[in-house]
Structure formats: structure tokens, C-alpha cells
Design brief:
Blueprint: E1 5-11, H1 15-28, E2 33-36, H2 40-53, E3 61-62, E4 77-80, E5 91-94, E6 110-116, H3 120-132, E7 137-144, E8 147-151
Parallel strand pairs: 1-6, 1-7, 2-4, 2-5, 3-4, 5-6
Antiparallel strand pairs: 7-8
Length: about 150
């Protein structure tokens, strides 16, 4: 079984642009994503922006208010405020949220954790929890003036 991995992105730009680019890349590689949000307003905002992000890709996405649960299997991206597995996600994406229920992480093979560059200590704490949950491979990419460099937590 391949290693379960976490990729951290330390950003100094707008979260939406980074998240949408990563979602598009993961979608094109066949990933199914649970996009974990803080609240219903975030779900509506990110879902609406994803629909208009790329003229090259139509990325099927939804949430409990926009799609019948039985149709979630057709959505590669599912937006939720909780650990919902309606679209059988392989990847969890979030914006540096503290995840309270780490036992559900076992269902994922990949986590994408995007955080503001000034909250590295919180990311280090999440890194420990991810490792305790079986995610042995962890990477950090640091954004600086529109370029990316590898780093360590």
C-alpha cells in the first residue's frame, strides 16, 4: 500500500486561487476531494468560485444544499463542514482548520493543508497529529512572491 501523505502549502497570497489551482490539478489526476470548510458561507463561496475558476476544466462539485446526497458520487469535489464521505473522497483539503476527529482521517490517502505563512506553529502541531494518524510522508511548499520552494516543518 502506498504511503499516506500530507502536503502543506504555506501561502502569502489569496487562499482561493491556490486552492482552485490545486483542485484542478488533483481533479485532472483523478482525485476525489472533500473540501472541509469552517461554515456554510465558506461552502457557498468556494463552491461558486470553483464553477467559474477555469475555462479549461469543468469540475463536478457540490454540497448538501446543491446536490442530492445520492448524486454526490458524481461530484469529484464535495464541500462540507464535517467529515462527509458521500463522494468517496481520496483526499482531504482544508485551509488550516483544526480537525477535531482524527480517527476519520484513515479513510484518506492524501491531505492538502493550506495555511497562512504566519501560522507555521499551528501547522507543526497538525503535522504531529497527521503522523499519529498514519500519514508518514509529509511535504511543505512555501510560497514567496509567486514562486514555490520546498521546506520543512
Amino acid at each position: 500500500m502506498p504511503d499516506k501523505n500530507v502536503t502543506f502549502y504555506s501561502i502569502d497570497s489569496e487562499f482561493l486561487q491556490v486552492a482552485c489551482k490545486l483542485i484542478e490539478k488533483m481533479y485532472l489526476s483523478g482525485e476525489r476531494i472533500l473540501f472541509l470548510c469552517d461554515n456554510e458561507e465558506e461552502i457557498s463561496f468556494y463552491n461558486s468560485k470553483l464553477w467559474t475558476f477555469s475555462k479549461l476544466s469543468f469540475i463536478p462539485s457540490g454540497n448538501e444544499k446543491s446536490i442530492f446526497i445520492e448524486d454526490a458520487k458524481f461530484c469529484y469535489i464535495w464541500f462540507s463542514t464535517n467529515m462527509a464521505f458521500y463522494n468517496e473522497p481520496t483526499c482531504l483539503l482544508h485551509n488550516g482548520l483544526e480537525i477535531l476527529n482524527y480517527k476519520n482521517l484513515e479513510r484518506f490517502k492524501k491531505i492538502v493543508d493550506i495555511f497562512r505563512c504566519d501560522s507555521i506553529s499551528d501547522a507543526k502541531a497538525r503535522s504531529i497529529f497527521y503522523e499519529e494518524s498514519g500519514f508518514s510522508v509529509q511535504r511543505l511548499w512555501i510560497q514567496s512572491q509567486a514562486s514555490w520552494t520546498a521546506g520543512n516543518l
